[in-house]
């Protein structure tokens, strides 16, 4: 049996407008490789800690498999409250103007936030380069993503944001440490952005999915330490190696969290129950050895590519975003095609940007593979 429906006619403009051609082109090229050195995947290469795995198994065996309350299970919410209290002095409770909710991944929190604040015609300012879903989220809400160009140093500063603000601006979205550049904003930069947003009555959304992946001596700075008029969005997937569990959270002004809960109740209902129980004690896991390992990998990238390309030294996340030297005369897709010929997968810059001058490396891969991949890239860039 085959479908006779004209599905193309039925699809919404919303979905037709979603731009996936760049990723598809990269994917099509990758099919040619049998055993590639894959430096394109944005997911950690370590296993979930045994204590967390065991907690997931226990939750299933203890029949904690049903719906949970929309905001999340009490124990997990409690650990999120404690975390934000110890980091930024945020207080939660019946009298508080702050609240938190567990979400289906960081992407789930971003989706609920955008749908809760953006009406058709509204604007949200996002960095360029950006995490691929940011412009899509604005489109889904029939709003406009205004790209704040951060080239060549990739710093999303208050000065750069200010030039993008219009009467239609509802929100600013920042991401530090950043995908795809690894740039980490300073305390002064995030404070200035928070102040600007407060003055202009604009919501500041801070996507902090890589908050734990920051390489000493750099520290993670959150605008939450300065302001409570901020929506903090974080995830568990990258930090604890469980991206497929789809777990994240959002915390910020109670009225906004209430709106997001309303949407969540009538769409996703709740985050996966077992995974919520599994992550209650996640903050007990010592991440120090992991960060040391990722710092070494970052150093490998800088050592092997720093002198053959323009590279902003990543201070966090697990990405680097080197520039393709002009003398090569190659576009992003030309360059990644060349890399594929040598069995190395990276992603061209136009997947993350309206510029096509850079490419993204993910160094969340074992050191031997990373070294082989980097030496191929070094040769191609020289
Ligand atoms: N924000 C950023 C900056 C990301 O890089 C990602 C994932 N690559 C997400 C959000 C979405 O994360 P999750 O898998 O938790 O939905």
List ligands, each type once.
Answer: 4'-deoxy-4'-aminopyridoxal-5'-phosphate
CATH architecture of the largest domain: 3-Layer(aba) Sandwich
Low-confidence stretches: none
Strand content: 5-15%
Termini, distance in Å?
54 Å
Query: Quick one: overall form?
Result: globular
CATH class of the largest domain: Alpha Beta
CATH superfamily of the largest domain: Type I PLP-dependent aspartate aminotransferase-like (Major domain)
Radius of gyration over C-alpha positions, nearest whole angstrom:
21 Å
State the helical fraction: 25-40%
Describe the main β-sheet briefly: 7 strands, mixed
Average pLDDT, all residues? 95
Named CATH topology of the largest domain: Aspartate Aminotransferase, domain 2
Give the helix/strand class: alpha/beta
Structural write-up:
It is a single chain. The protein has 382 residues and is of the alpha/beta class. It folds into 2 domains: 7-47 and 287-381, Alpha-Beta Complex (Aspartate Aminotransferase, domain 1); 65-284, Aspartate Aminotransferase, domain 2 (3-Layer(aba) Sandwich), CATH 3.40.640.10. 39% of the residues lie in helices and 15% in strands. The chain is built from 15 helices and 12 strands. The strands form 3 sheets. A 7-stranded mixed sheet has the order 2-8-7-6-5-3-4, with helices on both faces. Strands 9-12-11 form a 3-stranded antiparallel sheet. Strands 1-10 form a two-stranded parallel sheet. Helix 9 links the parallel strand 5 (169-175) and strand 6 (203-207). Helix 3 packs parallel to helix 14 (332-341). The model has no long low-confidence stretch (mean pLDDT 95). Bound molecules: 4'-deoxy-4'-aminopyridoxal-5'-phosphate. 4'-deoxy-4'-aminopyridoxal-5'-phosphate binds at residues 42, 105-107, 131, 175, 179, 207, 209, 235, 237, 243, 248.
């Amino acid at each position: 049996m085959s479908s006779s429906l004209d599905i193309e006619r039925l699809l919404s403009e919303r979905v037709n407008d979603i731009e996936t051609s760049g990723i598809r082109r990269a994917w099509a090229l990758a099919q040619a490789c049998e055993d590639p050195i894959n430096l394109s995947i944005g997911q950690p290469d370590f296993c979930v800690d045994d204590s967390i795995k065991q907690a997931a198994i226990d939750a299933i065996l203890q029949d904690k498999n049903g719906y949970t309350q929309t905001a999340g299970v009490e124990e997990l919410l409690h650990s999120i409250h404690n975390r934000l209290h110890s980091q930024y002095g945020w207080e939660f409770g019946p009298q508080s103007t702050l609240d938190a909710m567990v979400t289906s991944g960081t992407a789930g929190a971003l989706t609920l936030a955008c749908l809760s604040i953006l009406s058709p015609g509204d604007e949200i300012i996002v960095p360029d380069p950006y995490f691929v879903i940011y412009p899509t989220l604005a489109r889904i809400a029939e709003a406009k993503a205004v790209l704040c160009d951060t080239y060549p140093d990739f710093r999303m500063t208050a000065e750069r944001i200010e030039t993008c603000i219009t009467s239609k601006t509802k929100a600013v979205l920042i991401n530090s440490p950043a995908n795809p550049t690894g740039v980490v904003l300073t305390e002064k930069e995030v404070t200035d952005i928070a102040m600007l947003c407060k003055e202009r009555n604009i919501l500041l959304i801070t996507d902090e999915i890589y908050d734990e992946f920051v390489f000493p001596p750099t520290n993670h700075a959150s605008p939450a330490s300065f302001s409570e008029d901020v929506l903090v969005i974080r995830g568990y997937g990258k930090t604890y190696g469980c991206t497929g569990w789809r777990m994240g959270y959002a915390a910020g002004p109670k009225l906004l969290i209430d709106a997001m809960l309303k949407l969540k109740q009538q769409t996703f209902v709740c985050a996966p129950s077992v995974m919520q129980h599994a992550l209650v004690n996640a903050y007990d896991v010592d991440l120090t050895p992991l960060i040391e390992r990722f710092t070494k990998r970052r150093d490998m990238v800088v050592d092997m590519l720093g002198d053959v390309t323009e590279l902003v030294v990543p201070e966090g996340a697990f990405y680097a975003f080197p520039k393709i030297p002009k003398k090569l005369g190659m576009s992003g897709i030309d360059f990644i095609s060349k890399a594929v010929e040598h069995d190395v997968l990276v992603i061209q810059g136009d997947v993350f940007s309206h510029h096509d001058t850079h490419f993204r490396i993910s160094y969340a891969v074992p050191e031997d593979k990373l070294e082989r991949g980097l030496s191929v890239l070094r040769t191609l860039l020289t």
